[in-house]
Amino acid sequence: MKIEETPDNFQALDTVGAVGNQPSTPEGIAALGGTEQQTAGVTQAELDRRAETETREATTEGQSLSPLQASMRRLGRDRRAMFFMALVLILIVVSYVGPLVWTRVGPTILTGAAGLDKSGPASYHNYVFEDLSRQNANSSSLHPFGTDAIGRDILARIMAGVNVSIEVALLVEIMDIGLGVTIGTLAGYYGGWLATFLDRFTDLMFAFPGLLFAILAAATLGPVFQSRLGLPGRLILVSMALGISVWPFMARLVRGQTLQLREQQFIEASRTVGSSNRHIIMSHIVPNLFNIVIVAATLDVVNTIVSEAVISLLGLGVQTPGSSLGLMINDAAAVIAVYPWEVVWPTAVLAILVLAFSFMGDGVQDAFNPRTKD
Amino acid sequence: MDQILSNLPLLIVVVLLVGFLVYTGFHIGPRFLVRRIAGLVFVILGVSFVTFILGYLAPGDVVVNQLGVHYTVAGARALRHLYGLDLPWWQQYGNYLNQLLHFSLGRSWLTYSQTVWSILSQFVPVSATLGLSSLVLAAILGIPLGMLAAVRSNTRYDTVIQTVALAFYALPSFVIIPFYALAMVWLNYQGLPHLQVSGWGTWDTMLAPIVITAINSFAGYLRYTRTSVIEVLRQDYVRTARAKGLSERVVLWRHVFKNALLPLITITGPSVGFVVTGLFITENLFNIPGIGQEALNAIISRDFPVVQGVTILLAVTVALMNLVTDVTYGLVDPRIKVA
Q: Is A352 near chain B, with CB under 8 Å?
């Protein structure tokens, strides 16, 4: 049989009928590494309809659900995602509530280099308190995770470090979503110079590794921010630098989606009844961006947490006596052979934090972006 | 002439690249290429400007730092003049661009006898070895696993493979490295054979950084392979092949895998960017004398010509890889129109 020898003929025949079909399938786009997933031939409306029917089949009552409800329900059914989401919440709650409790638990003990100062838990369970009589202490009921090289409680420092990770992630996401959605929507809706600017800026940030940019900014401008704004100044600087390097990717996603939404019939209908551009953007386009924005933002959190830790690990982010998981790893790495636990605790917590966020992000993506599912 | 000779390696790369682009220009159409090369020039301008302005705005005076106790007013003035720091900022940047046009990256401020180019050519091979071998290893790990996950999609195999891959992908290398170091320290205590935890040049120092970088990035290959194979499995010609009674093995190897591997070309560009970012931390923790380590040292000691050189080099590498990737994809898959 000749055909058997030349499978390529089949392929050729197969694709003649559907020129451009390949990249317009969702997997094709994803496989192309496309940041503009949303140029897919499948429209959002159709996806929503699919999601809806899928859910309706699952729910016996048969009442109709909004796309958001459908996504939430799909997320709720993903046990792995829910587990990690709970883990994330627990970590956040513990890292913020924990210090309040922790500084009230414990007996009054003698501290200081000579061991003569009386201190309560409010001081020795504070993440900046140095107890020079207990350096590199092993774990005990007083310091469950031990103390570091200058006698600071490791548990307290880890909680403070997680706070820093969460705060940086929050600041970066605010910037990412704020700038990304605003500029992405405007560039998609109006095009013109804004779209050109976005394109050029994204090209630039594609080539300039975001981490390098943030390291550079933290190293050169860090001292200025620190002297003007105190210790949090460095955090703000790092967040800004990371935010600047991530928003173009969000903006590109949003623009792709906006371009596609703009051509939809409900927008046309809205325009026919005399809606202003502003009204169309605010009430028809922005709400429909929710899905892709939430997915991209959740996945970005992981990168942000890691980048902040890297910058602090290199000694350019949070400065001592402040705490950050990266800084703790850096401080303890020198004595890893002697006091391994001092490295293991912050590393393990960082690992849990990062894994929890990325598994949660994976689940969110499956739930809110059903086309990525096979 | 001297300058041209000293830049011979660069010249060869440029000639090869131009050759490749001219070749593809004939096949794909010049309009696309012109636009992309204009984009590349813009990227170089942008990256160098951002780096320059950060260095310019940075507090502290490099001349004062360098002279230290030998500071005299006349000496500082002379040094400032030598570095061109006595000019207004736009003239400093203009001079820098002028140098770039002549393929020169200037001289290091810290060791003025060395050109930035010679410093880079000393560190780049190390990083390139680390980066390339880990990329290859990542592909070797990721592609077969991705195929397996796709063929068994939505079974337990698939779930396990995907979960493990996502975990490795999410865990940054500096989380893995301390545990690796601990394991080696422990082996050392026990008197068992172990690998080194820092340095570069011998196999027992090189193995760990390469493997750790690779397991950090193989998930990308895995996911793309999986998506792409699943996509191809759905095509009509696969159904036809099955329908006419070919064995599953023939269908998979001859009809599916060959076609599914094509889109993998597209992630080569992004993964280069990923590796470049990873270099900073891996080289720092393993104490490898590579480009990431050198960039950090230069940033901390404010040796801005070297910082400029590194950022431009990395940016151009990533941008060129993206360009070559796009063009290659257009060449091998005529269905993709790049223009």
A: no
Residue to test with chain A: of B160, B185, B186, B237, most A Cβ within 10 A: B237
Nearest-by-Cβ selection for A209 from B153, B178, B276: B276
B-chain CB neighbours of A2 within 8 Å are none
Per-residue pLDDT for A53 more than 70?
A: no
Average pLDDT over residues A288-301: 85
Torsion angle, alpha carbons of A8, A10, A12, A14, to 10 = -150
Catalogue all structural domains in chain B, each as residue range(s) with its CATH number: 122-308 (1.10.3720.10)
Question: Residue A119 has what DSSP assignment?
Answer: E
The mean pLDDT of B303-307, rounded to a whole number, is 84
- pTM, 2 dp: 0.79
Could you say which of 1.20.140.10, 3.40.605.10, 3.40.50.2300, 1.10.3720.10 is the CATH number of the domain covering A69-97+152-368? 1.10.3720.10
Q: Where are the alpha helices (DSSP H) in chain A?
A: 2-5, 7-16, 21-24, 26-31, 44-58, 67-77, 79-102, 121-124, 154-190, 192-207, 210-229, 232-262, 265-272, 277-280, 290-313, 325-333, 340-368
| Domain boundaries of chain A, sorted by first residue | 7-60, 69-97+152-368
pLDDT digits (tens, 9 = 90+) for A125-142: 888 888 788 778 788 878
CA distance A45 to chain B (A): 23
Shortest CA gap B133–chain A (Å): 20
